[in-house]
Each structure stands twice: as C-alpha cells, then as structure tokens.
Amino acid sequence: MSEDKIKILERALEREKAARKQAEKILENKSVELYELANQLKATNSQLEEILSEKTSELKGVFENIVDAYVMMDLWGNVLKMNEAAKDLLGYDIDKEEFNLLNLVHKKDLEYTAKAFQQLYKKGSFTDYQARVITKEKEVKLVHVNSSIIYNKYGKAIAAQGIVRDITRETQDREIFERQKRQLDIIVENSPLGIVLTSNGTIIKSNKTFQRFLGYSGNELKGKKVKELTFHLDSEETRNNMNSVDAGKVEGFAIKKRYLRKDNSVFDAKTTVSVLKNSRGTVEYQVAMIEDITQQIANEKQKEQLLLNLERSNEELKNYAHIVSHDLKSPLRSIEALISWLKEDYGEAFDNKGLEYVQMLEDKIENMDHLIDGILKYSSINAEDMHKENVDVHEILEDIIDTIYIPEHVEVKIVGEMPQLRADRTRMYQLFQNIISNGVNYIESKKGLVEVACENEKNHWLFSIRDNGVGIPKEYHNKVFKIFQSFGSYNKSSGIGLSIVKKIIDVYQGRIWLESEENKGTTFFIKLKKEMV
Amino acid sequence: MSLQILLIEDDMIEVMKFNRVISGLDFRHKIVEARNGEEALELLEKKDKLPDIILLDLNMPKMNGIEFLRILKNDEVLKFIPTIILTTSNNRADILECFKIGIAGYVIKPLKYEDYVSKITSVLEYWNNNELSGI
Positions modified as 4-aspartylphosphate (chain B) (predicted)? Predict the structure, then answer.
C-alpha cells in the first residue's frame, strides 16, 4: 500500500469520525427534545382528564338538579335515562321499569307527535312541542318539550334528549285568565255607557259604545288626546275637575259635557271620571264612563217647552175667563139698569103680574151673574197662584157664617177644635164657603142644621160637613163635583160651587167624597194632608 | 159746588146710567163724555179747561183704559188730575197695575142699578169735598 493510499484512507477515517460525532450530537439533542415533548404531553393529558372529570360531574349535577324534567331516549322513544323531576312528572321510573314515551302520549296528539319526531330526526331538534301525556296515575298533563338528537363521534344519531315542562296549570290559569278577560270584554263592549281608559289625557282603550257615540274606530281613538274630542266651551270645567283630581283632592267627578264627533257635530253626555292610582299614589289612569244624554236633554227641553206652553195657555185661559166674564157681565148690567128704569119710570103701568115678571127677570139676571162669577173663580184656581200662609180654620168658618146668607131656620155649628193649616187663605175660604152655602141652601126641613167638624188623623185632617137637608140621590154623588152639574132647583145655585171646592182640593192633592140619604141629609168629607203642597 | 167730570166710557147705557145718577143729585156737576182714550186725549189737549176728576173705564176698543192712564200719568200737567177707574174687571193684575201707574180710586161696576147709584153718589160726594182746583 502506498503512502498516498494510506493517507487517503486515514483522512477518510477522520472524516467519518467527525461525521459520527456530529450525528451523535444531533441524536442526543433530539432525544432531549423528545423527552421534553413527552413530558408536556403528559401534563396536558392530565389537565384534560381533570377538565373532563369536572365537566362530567358538572353535567351530572345539572342533570340531577335541573328543575325541569329531563329525559333521554333512544330513537324509538324507549327511555334510557331520566332525572327526578321527570320521574315526578310522569310517575314512571326507568330504574324500575322500562317504558316508551310514545305510549304515554294522548291518542289525540299521536299524529302531531309523529310529525314532531320526523322533524327531530331530520333537523336534529324540535322546540315548543306541546301535547297531552297520560301519567302512570292516569292523570292527563299538558307538557311542553324542547328536544334534540345526540350523535356519536362519527356523526351518527344514537339517542334523543328532551327537557319537559308541565304546563297544565299554567295553561289552565291562562285559560281562566283569558275567559275572565273575555267576560270582562263582553261587559265592557256591551255596556250602554261609553267607557274610555286614558293616561295623561291620552286614550289608551275605548269600548264600542264610545266609538259609536263619536263615530271613530277604536284604532282612530287610540292615542288621541281627550282634549281633541272635547267641545271647546266645556273644557275649562273639565280641566278644573281634572286638576283637583290630580291634586289628590277628589277620587273622581261627574260632569255634563259635550264631545265632538268625527263629523264635528256635538254630542251631549254625562261623564263620570274615576281615577286609578298606582302603588305610589300617583295617578296612573283615568276611567271615564260616558252616558249619552242627547235624548235626555231633548226631553228636558221638550218638557220645558211644554211647561212654558202650559203656563202660557193657563195664563191665556185666565185672561180669557176675565174677558168673557166682562163681556157677559156688561150687557147683564145694562139689562139690570134698564129693568130698574122701567120699574122707576113706568112702574105704575104694571099690574101685579107684570111686577112679578120683572122680579123673575131680575132673579134670572142675578143667577147669571153668579154663574159668570163662578166660572171666573173656577178658572182662576191654579197651583202657581196659591200662597202659603197660616190659616185658622175656625176663624174662617166664623167669618163665613157672618158673611153668607143663612136663612132664619138654619143654624151652622162648628163642632170641636179646628186646625191651623198652611195654605192659601182665600182658597180655603172659598172651599168652606161653597160647601157650607151648598148645605145651607138645600135645607127644607123646619129646623136646619149644618155641622162642621174635624178629625185629627195621623197624616191628614178629615173635615166633615153634615147637613139635614134634602139629600143627594146616589146617581149624583159623583156628578155634583163636575162643573155645571147642579141638580137642585134652588135658584141661587150656579152649579159651580162644588166644582170650585173639588178643584181647590185637587190642587192640594186632597180628597172629597160624600155620604147622603134622601130627605135625611148629606155629609161631605174632605181629607187634606197635614203637610200641604 | 159742582165738579167738572170727564167720563171715558164706550158703552152707551153706562153713560146713560151715569147721567141719570148725576141728574138725580143736588149738585149740578158738568159732565164731558169721551167714548175712548183717544177722544179723551183730544179733549184734554186744550188744557185750558181741565176736568176736576176723570172716571175711566178699562175695557174699551182702540186704546184701552190702562194705555190711556199711562199716557196721562206721563204728562207733566195731566198727571195731577185724579183718575178713578170705573170698570167691570176685578182682575187682580189689572187692579195692581192701575195703582202702580197712579189712580185715585178703583170702583167695580155692580150688577144692580141701585148699588151703582149709591156707589157713584158716594164717589162724587167724596171728590166734591176735595180741593183740587187750579192745576
């Protein structure tokens, strides 16, 4: 071997040594790296294990402590797992017996349930499932379920889970609430009163009646200011009332006010406003009840008008009576004067028969004069012209006895006490004068007696005027009080006296009637209220 | 002594009645007749010979008694003439209105002539004793 060759070989060996050294070095480094990595992995792994165990126990806790029922089932509805709440809800316990959820579903909800399952498989979840289930105790419960599919790591569906909520009670409550609301709505909507709920002067709700009153729809009214609907002349009163309500002075008020309809016509209404306060005592809402008083006002106006007409025609009648009485009396007076002059100037030309005729003429004229006076008196009796004064009946009776003509054979007696009345003196005088005159005039017996008495009843005075005169036949008992119904032959009778009596008693809302026996006498009874109107 | 009397009356027989009463009296009263208020005002317009008293009927055609009375009482001179109402009307409203405007008496014509005579006689006797000349 040549030197050269040796040298070459030696150098090659050197290079090889150096390369190996380098390789060893790299290997050593890699080993260290690997070691460190392995350590790191180990740490991470144990960390992961820790987290996993944490999560598992967490989940377990959630599963056990969840308030809502939780059920896990296979894809055919067989229950795999359930929590305590689910056991309580369904009455079944998977740890004791196997069961299938689909068997619990109310048969009427089966079809819906089938569809729900289809969707669950297809989309992976189904929310707001609502159906009736029958528990082990045969109770029907309405449940609400949100469910989802559980997949394995290869993405294959293996089970389904659901959170079940018992909404039986909740639904019942809601139904009761809805029913009550409907009932309330029926009342509100069918009320003949317009009803409006407002807050700060803005309409929140109104019923149909109110909408009909004003010609707006419910939506049009919503959000409208009450002010816009109020007839401008009225608003100040309302405002004043509203202010005192706001100030807590009153809980509500009632006023008559006018509203503007959609067509700008004015609508008369009575409005009652009540205030609803919140727990802090500040006004939250106002409820207004609106009553249509258009008709009422029209009626009142009509009544006023009628009353006015009545007053006017009463007045006219009174004037008319005066005019008629004047027009009738004037010629009567002239005839009287002419007859007097005939007697004065030509009296000697008459024989006895002629003078008798003249006397009869004069009597008839006097009769006619009484009649006219009677009509005038009758027509001027009316409630408005009556005074209220203290009237001593005894005094009046004595006055009458002193004044009227009483024949020699007749005596008028006041029997017992007479009351004090609050009434119109002139009318009371007319009343007793006419009835006593009537009694006095119809007495034909030798010794005539007219007795006036009075009984003190609880609320009334009962006067009786008894005579021993000719009596009144039964068929006339009612007629005597009617005008122009004098049945007697006594020539001073105008037939109006008792009509005047009746009219005065009518004004005082009293009563008059009579008892009579022919040829024995008549008793008139007059019942007057102690509290006269 | 005798009175100058203005009688305002539309009814002929009433006028006759009045004249007949006067003619039966001792005093020679002078009567001037007017058949209604307008005629009376014409007579009074002259003012040189004014009556001592006026007897006035209320119910008359044309101007009625109350209208006449109002005009009379608004006149500065004529308002002093005593005016006595002689009427059929016992309507309270009429009576009150007359007294309100200003009258010297209110006499209601009675039905009977003899009552009329005594009433008129006493009225005239009363005014005959009153001093009222020189208005």
Answer: 57
